[in-house]
Amino acid sequence: MATRLRPSSKRCAVIGGSGFLGRHLVEKLQDRGYSVSVFDIRQSYELPGVTFHQGDLCDEQALLSALKDVSLVFHCASPAPASNDRALFERVNIQGTKTVIEACIQAGVQKLVLTSSASVVFEGTDIKNGREDLPYAKKPIDYYTQTKIQQEKLVLEACDKQKGFLTVAIRPHGIFGPRDPQLVPIMVDAARRGKMKFIIGDGTNLVDFTFVENVVHGHILAAECLRPDSPICGKPYHITNDEPIRFWDFMSEMLVGLGYAAPRFHLPYGLVYSLALLLWLLTWILRPLLSFKPTFTPMRVALAGTHHYYSCERAKQDLGYRPVVSLKEGIARTVQSYPHLRHGA
Ligand SMILES: NC(=O)C1=CN([C@@H]2O[C@H](COP(=O)(O)OP(=O)(O)OC[C@H]3O[C@@H](n4cnc5c(N)ncnc54)[C@H](OP(=O)(O)O)[C@@H]3O)[C@@H](O)[C@H]2O)C=CC1
Ligand SMILES: CC(C)=CCC[C@@H](C)[C@H]1CC[C@H]2C3=C(CC[C@]12C)[C@@]1(C)CCC(=O)C[C@@H]1CC3
Asked: How far is it between the farthest Cα atoms of the chain?
């Protein structure tokens, strides 16, 4: 296991620090005594001691002024997967990440920790205990994933011990927790519209859901282990709760916790996937006439109906990673944090 070192200056920047994961990361870094700057396209909160720089990460000059005297950068900004905007994903995740790397090198940043995604190896078919040596998806399930693959490659290939610029990528999966704008809100919206009655497939597919504080813990461990002599340089690491759970059990626990009924009726996976594909095709053909965003997309059906869980042995070995919050506690804390989304609220 690599030795953990705190950067001497303890000055770091979180690109995407106004987002769900970013804000949790900022709060924990501050608790641990880091001096933190946030760079984000929006400012969603204020925190004493944290400096905010509002800007687009594709703007090198804006980044350079935010990275002055910073030795460690976390890059966890991305357009939301639900935006499904190919041009935006390419501009931010690919061009923007090139700009982040260039700005880091120019500003003398020593370490860059990227938030990648375990989905970079997911093609819509079962992955059981997938390790980091699985090949990147040849047919990624959506544009978001396609650009996350390119982004991860760019960051890992930029690792250069000679130049003193070290990089590492964290691949979380199914992040959930307080303030998440996606998982629970999308699920509750579907429940309120009567769309959470059905289980896609036989309901036994296992999936990783990862409590946000475990993802934060993985990022900080990676940053503190990143040194020229450590085995983690230029490598990706899966960070999960290490407790794969049936997708539909997780959904049911969340729903029941919030006062909604658990899904009960089974629908065949192949049928739902084909319908989602057809719907997607129709909305694509009719896009000049109507802007309709279906709840059932092929990507979501694949996520809901296949096995996709990952080994985090490499993170345990190299980073000393162990989840700090169990799935049970994570679910309870998440449910408690959404009083406004409870049934009848
Ligand atoms: N949530 C999940 O389950 C998983 C997330 N990830 C990865 O984790 C990271 C964080 O995700 P999450 O916290 O959920 O996402 P959020 O959308 O909550 O946070 C991302 C932040 O980045 C900002 N941002 C987007 N584009 C730019 C830009 N051009 N310049 C500066 N800032 C920008 C967003 O602003 P705005 O909201 O205005 O767009 C937002 O504040 C992402 O890289 C994502 O790919 C990986 C696996 C799973
Ligand atoms: C583990 C992992 C990568 C989770 C991803 C989170 C989201 C993609 C899910 C959040 C809410 C989920 C959801 C569905 C699919 C996956 C999510 C979008 C459905 C659309 C699946 C089909 C239904 O029956 C309705 C579901 C609503 C919630």
From this structure: 60
Residue 292 included in any domain: no
pLDDT tens-digit series, residues 327-339 = 999 999 999 999 9
Residue-level pLDDT at 334: 98
Give the mean model confidence (pLDDT) for residues 147-170.
97
pTM summary value = 0.95
Active-site residue flag, 144 = yes
- Quick one: pLDDT at residue 3? 54
Q: Is 3 helix (H, G, I), strand (E, B) or coil?
A: coil
User: Do β-strands 72-75 and 51-54 pair in parallel, antiparallel, or remain unpaired?
Assistant: unpaired
Task: Decide if 23 is inside a domain.
Answer: yes
pLDDT-based confidence at residue 8 (cuts at 50, 70, 90): very low
228: CB partners within 8 A, 6+ apart = 161, 164, 166
How far, in Å, from the CA of 18 to the mean position of ligand 1? 9
Contact (CB, 8 A) for 49 and 35: yes
pLDDT tens, position by position, 86-106: 999 999 999 999 999 999 999
Whether residue 76 has its Cβ less than 6 Å from ligand 1: yes
Residue 1 has pLDDT above 60, yes or no: no
The domain spanning residue 94 has which CATH number? Answer: 3.40.50.720
Which of 143, 144, 260, 269 is the catalytic position?
Answer: 144
- Residue 43 belongs to domain spanning: 11-177+209-242+310-324
| Segment 223-255, tens digit of pLDDT | 999 999 999 999 999 999 999 999 999 999 999
CA 46–ligand 2 middle distance (angstroms): 31
**What's the structural domain count of the chain?**
1
The reply to whether ligand 2 has any atom less than 6 angstroms from the CB of 121 is: no
Residue nearest to atom 19 of ligand 2 (CA): 300
Structural domain contains residue 189: no
* Ligand 2 centroid, distance to 43 Cα (angstroms): 27
Residue 68 belongs to a domain: yes
Ligand 1, atom 28, lies closest to the CA of 56
All residues at 6 or more sequence positions from 237 whose CB lies less than 8 Å from its CB, including other chains = 132, 168, 169, 170, 171, 218, 222, 312, 314, 315, 318, 319, 321
